[in-house]
User: What shape does this take?
Amino acid sequence: MGDLFSNLALGFHVVFQFSPWSPSWLGGVTIPIPINILLCLVGALVGTLVGVLPGIGTIATVAMLLPITFGLPPVGALIMLAGIYYGAQYGGSTTSILVNIPGEATSVVTTLDGFQMAKQGRAGPALAIAAIGSFFAGCVATVLIAVLGAPLTKLALAFGPAEYFSLMVLGLIFAVVLAKGSVLKAIAMIVLGLLLSMVGSDIETGASRMAFNIPELADGLGFATVAMGVFGFAEIIRNLDAGAEMDRDLVQQKITGLMPTKKDLIDSAPAIVRGTILGSILGILPGGGAVIASFAAYTFEKKIAKDPSRFGRGAIEGVASPESANNAAAQTSFIPLLTLGIPPNAVMALMVGAMTIHGIVPGPQVMQKQPELVWGMIASMWVGNLMLIIINLPLVGIWVRLLRVPYRLMFPSIVIFCAIGIYSINNAPVDVILAGGFGLVGYWLIKHDFEPAPLLLGMVLGPLMEENLRRALLISRGDWSVFVTRPLSAVLMATAAFLLVLALLPSLRKKRDEVFVESEN
Amino acid sequence: MADTLGHSPGQSRPVSNIGNVSAAIGILVLAIAPQLFELIWSIGALTVRSTARAPLQVLAGHGAALLYGAPVQMFASIAAPGKAAIASDTLLAMIYSYPLFAVAALTLLVKLKAPQDYFGGIVLMALALFALWASSDLQGMRGFSFGAGTAPRMFGVLMLGLGAGIAVVGLLTDGPALATYHWRGPLFVSLSILSFAITIRPLGLVLSAFATFMISALGTHETRWKETIIVGIALTAFCSFLFPYGLGLPMQLWPRFLIQ
Assistant: This one.
């Protein structure tokens, strides 16, 4: 317990650090600025903006901002990127409630009851409850990361290559089970990602693999390049299909009375707690993340309600629970990344990219060798959540006005930002062309109902998986049974197999589809 | 595949035979896509000095491999397995093109219940076969330790199986027809990205970014030019400040010939 407090103290110390800043135009005057706090604020604001604007996803934004973090110190860079992720969960709810447009996939379910509440003139309480729920969830998740971090790291140190490989298999299977649509297609996407990760030179022998003597491919496909193509460009092209004129000009309700009534608070408090618990669990699980958490929380809430017919007609629990869940999940999904070095979803995969850019190899050793990095980030999450709740409610009006920016002006701007962003990673025009190519690939994938997120996850985990597989087999002298004879690895493999069978069972599949269909309507 | 596009998603009536013919032709084109790509590439490479093969060489090499090299090689390897190294063109025809020819022929005979899944699966199979060919020159297992080529081959085979599985699902269960593809958005967004990549080095950020903005704005017919130009200028100015100055990234702002 004492460890926990000293660790958190270290984290807050890092967050509130002042660093000297002496720009040349001030003529040698040095001003101390709280750089990490500022970056946290920037991240949270950008995240909220992204969450508000439909058509720009969190993944694309984090990919877009990766190159920008080059010049920053590693702690600051990670604090900012983390801020974007949980900030987006806040922002998404705002537009869901006010104009019935989910800015993010994570707040799709919030539209069901949130917009109904707004129609009844209770937009203020809905927004407030969403913010309070998110803040509560954020606090719990921060403590959870701090508590679970150290023990999980110890566990991770007992892991050999075989266990690591099995764990990654389990993570990928989780991603498949929790993905939408066909199980077969999701697995195929993961394998495609694994194959893409193998382009470039082999880690052990240095042999050039599938690079066709093209020098730009010798280093492998850049992960940000693929992410930006498949998520950024493909998303734009897809949106253009539907026509740029999206139905945005919905009536804006006058927001009166932000404060929820006492009854609202009593009704929503248990829902917030349930949502937080569910979200935290789904966030830790590999393959989970905020989207599935909000869906699950809403479904669960409706199931246990005494009067389920209230849902869809402005039940405050239908706002409180999913909003708490998505924020909790967004934060707890940092746990596998920070302790085991394994990204549980696509956004975390990009965080790995950010860490590698700064020369940090994610894994259990990070927590021991660079505690200020890990704890600084954890502490910044709590600070960020506090800032979000303070700044966001007054800014609601501005966010809603931003929605009026038409897509026909927004999409060329996103194209430019993406293009410059990719170019600046290596100063290589070829990267930009590659990203454009992957944009078309992503468009094709969407048209054939393949989900791109598992592809990205496969691509990140590919090198790690191959390395551990090779090592495990080398140690066991080519004996494949090592994955089932080592107890820890066997348990992981058995869980993975069990999950896969479960996902393939027709009855469960039907139920899973129902969850998604319900949340889409 | 043009005439299969007409069906709205959700319709599941069996596709007519004419649809199957054009589908088979589509798969045939896919089957020789790498060869066609190299041919076009080699024609393009004529304009710049490069180490690529001449177009006629490419045509002769792949033509020979497709027409008689691969079958001859197959008989040879059946007669005396594990003999001398096979030329890369022949191997491509054997590993990639011939199996896809077979799939194309098969397409003529079956009823496509879910074209979206069927074609999705087949393209994945094509990717897997291509990856198998691309990693065929790599070393395999050395004793019990992995060679450079082991993992790519392993996952290539796995993806081949998965692709086939998806295609079979598309044959057995009813599913959505092919989705409609639009040309305007993809074309102009791709063109604008391409133009950025080509112009950023010689012309600098300012001109390049503005051109990219205008070209991508062509991607929808709803663009109003006056406001687009104004926003384009404003955004270019913003980017020209943010990236080189605000973030300190090394980027040239103006065309090279103006600076020198």
Remarks:
- Chain B has two domains: 2-172, 184-259.
- Residues 184-259 of chain B form one domain.
- Chain B touches chain A through 75 residues (CB under 8 Å).
- Residues 194 and 212 of chain B are 9 Å apart (CA to CA).
